[in-house]
Specification:
Two copies of one chain form a homodimer.
Chain A: E1 10-22, E2 46-54, E3 64-65, E4 68-70, H1 77-89, E5 95-102, E6 113-121, E7 138-142, H2 153-170, H3 184-195, H4 201-210, E8 214-220, E9 230-234, H5 236-244
Parallel strand pairs in A: 1-6
Antiparallel strand pairs in A: 1-2, 1-4, 2-3, 2-7, 5-6, 8-9
Chain A binds a DNA duplex through helix 4.
Chain lengths: 251, 251
DNA sequence: GCAAAAGTGTTTATGATACACCCATGC
DNA sequence: GCATGGGTGTATCATAAACACTTTTGC
């Protein structure tokens, strides 16, 4: 059943790294803004972005690609993904989740390469260093401004986005994007950016607060040209505790 | 970034094949049967089973393992999984879904082997041949009677079970287990076997029928020693149609 | 004083749950 | 005629959705 006579494929890891960016002023097209109340949720306060690296070698030289690289022969898959990410973005602590293996025989024109894809989330508030990524040929791209990608990376990215959207409803992973202290509006904007749909402000805040996992602080945001919003933090310890008892996040 | 100087690991596929079996009479332990109505759901009319193969080569000779084998150098991952399954069980058309890659460096004592795991469901009604699997050393095991497994296959199986339980609530995959014509009771028993908890008969039937995707037939089951239940079928075409319009299965 | 976003409750609709009895059939 | 499972409806509860105005602050 098992035998080792067959030629071995190369195995890589590729990471879809999601980050968060200040939203640019909405694209020029004068959107016929629906005047509904729930529309007042300022969709677009932040943008979901993806980290890409520009290749300098053939094939696909000059094209943008997901950061990634070879799995070393004695290295676990998750370890390889973290190592590659640290090498390419300098970020150590980030959320990492395996997406799956992509192994179409022709996905790399040179030889058979099977890649194990990961979904990663980097907190650009706590790790501002990574915002620009010191590597010369790296950049953050908003989802609606993606360049053409090398290999089958467009499909991997699409799968990652689908996974992110599914996960965001079942686990509090949004806080992986956010700083330790955040406003409720930031959380809502992030949900809206990820799900691509506006949410009702009052219902959203109510639901978030009823979880008992978002604790209000005695601080407000600073340097805003209007009323300052109260800051909150996510009670991760308590979440882990109630989760062990069967609690399920459900946003 | 990409280079090909590194030694390549071996890559295999392994399949967690779920099937369905008549339930054996409930284990002897005289369960203090709660006399609630909802308990009358005959939990245990069927058992969820997993297909395992007994290894005859070292390492783990004699131990049970998931069916699987090498990915050929020019073969896609899904194709490899289907090929292995057909070779080992004779079943062609089955539900197949990638679970993910397992690649701990020491998971195979001989050399580095990365495996891509799959979740498969075989319909033992439409393909009764596979029930016994002509291979001499294969067998179906109920979840509570699993033997010790080779390699890290226990972890793969656990992951597959978790995925199955999650999927069953969001997609109508239970019908992959069932014959084209089935009774509502069969569906309920199957949900109960997968989720491991009893369900309320009336609520379950109501919900199932309200989907509009379970069509009653003018036929009843045969050869039962009591009132025969009406047969139904799952309207797959209609499901695909409404799903394209955003409908989400939610059982 | 006005622009811009923060903050706050109630009503309504929808879906989930709990629950008990009569019916058909084979033996 | 009795044992076995098939089949059915309603009342209650919990959750989700819709919805508009007052407050604070910087300019």
């Amino acid at each position: 059943m098992y035998s080792y006579q067959y030629p071995h494929p190369a195995v890589t890891v590729d990471c879809v790294v999601f980050g968060l960016d200040e939203a640019r002023p909405a694209p020029s097209g004068a959107s016929a803004r629906g005047d509904r109340e729930s529309r007042g949720s300022t969709l677009g306060t932040c943008d979901l972005t993806v980290l890409l690296i520009q290749r300098d070698l053939d094939p696909y030289a000059g094209a943008w690609a997901l950061p990634g690289g070879f799995v070393r022969i004695d290295e676990g898959l998750d370890v390889a993904a973290r190592r590659e990410l640290e090498e390419e973005t300098g970020v150590r602590d980030l959320y990492l989740e395996q997406l799956g293996a992509f192994g179409a025989p022709d996905r790399d024109p040179r030889e058979r390469v099977i890649t194990v894809a990961y979904l990663a989330i980097v907190n650009l508030f706590d790790h501002p260093v990574a915002a620009a990524t010191d590597a010369r040929n790296a950049g953050w791209f908003a989802l609606d401004e993606l360049p053409r990608l090398a290999f089958d990376h467009d499909r991997i990215l699409e799968a990652a986005l689908g996974r992110l959207r599914a996960n965001v409803r079942e686990e509090p992973i949004v806080f992986e994007f956010l700083p330790g202290k955040f406003t409720l509006r930031q959380v809502q904007s992030l949900y809206e950016a990820i799900l691509g749909e506006p949410l009702d402000k009052r219902n959203f805040r109510k639901k978030l607060q009823e979880t008992g996992l978002i604790v209000p602080l005695d601080e407000v945001e600073t340097a805003v040209a209007h009323r300052a919003a109260r800051l909150h933090r996510f009670d991760r310890e308590r979440y882990e505790a109630v989760r062990a008892e069967g609690y399920r996040w459900n946003a």
